Amino acid sequence: MQASGKGSIWIALIVVLLLLSGCGTGGAGKSADSGGATGTDKGTTDTQGAASTDSVRTIEHVLGKTEIKGTPKRVVTLYNGANDVMIAYGIKPVGIVESHGTEPVYDYLKKDLAGIPTVGLETQPSLEEIYNLKPDVIIATRFRNEATYQQLSEIAPTVAVNEVYEWKETVKLIGQVLNQEDKGTQLLADWDRRVADFRTKMGDRLPIKASIVNFRADHARIYYMGYAGKILKELGFTRPPAQEGDQWGVKVNSKESIPDMNADTLFVFNSGKDQAAIEKNVEAWTRHPLWKNLDAYKKNSIFKVDEVNWNLAGGYLSANRMLDDLYKMYDLKS
């Protein structure tokens, strides 16, 4: 978007503050240099706001319409799914948000994102750090960044998807931004082929009624239609009647809610850093008589899954990793 008069003043104030505080020669400035050196697989330059052409495109997204000049070279991503999708495109951002729980990035992305500056947590990225990286474009979400969207847009053109777990929309949006829509179409077509292959090889074992259960240190959660839930639905799994709805899921504190988890199969993962407390809580729930009444328990069909692949990463590559997990669980050749 074009900067407004107020926006120009806002940016000028940032510059003055940075000069007064010495930030221009401090750590943030070094991060910008690091980002330029890391670059992208297609040749990021150190030129501020560099773009390959002068053509202007208007991209419509959930937070409005944004004008982007040329093909952006310096991209900052403000959610983990976008970190992932940029690598799926073979292009490194110049700035990223930190991952959840495995700082600074998830293990499966460490090689590809090594040395790239972080701009803070997904829940609260630093506007100053983003500004210092001199991005051509910022990839955001309505869920995380709506309140600061105008400020972000004054730093650089900013586009957004609705939710952090909408990885297909992220693939499409980034394809538009990078002038690589054909590549995005190919990525999604590759995914569709894998989905069709999985469903064919599963045959009449589908549909399988499945629940996604998450244990924390002091409670449990049942996930409905978030990241993993949507993928499972696409693959031919169904949900129990008690879990119908489009919300992410529910937080449950009482073990009397265990029957709401009932399904033919359970996919279970743990979350949090206090491992002792989590394990104690898991034991309390899984030793309860109601747990042993679950169909999945009786069928010995409870799978412990990776939290990053199944919940946190929210990207194209992690979706494929989740599908890899399912191929292994059901003894299928991928």
UniProtKB/TrEMBL annotation:
* Compositional bias annotation for Low complexity: 30-51
Q: Where is this region: Disordered?
A: 29-54
Fe/B12 periplasmic-binding domain location is: 74-334
UniProt-annotated location(s): Cell envelope
Which Gene Ontology cellular component terms are annotated?
Answer: outer membrane-bounded periplasmic space
Q: What is its main location?
A: other
UniProt-listed InterPro entries: ABC_transptr_periplasmic_BD (IPR002491), Bact_iron-sidero_bind (IPR051313)
Which Gene Ontology BP terms does the record give?
Answer: iron coordination entity transport
For this UniProt record, the keywords arranged alphabetically read as follows: Signal, Transport
Q: Which family does it belong to?
A: Belongs to the bacterial solute-binding protein 8 family.
User: In its UniProt entry, what is this protein called?
Assistant: Periplasmic-binding protein
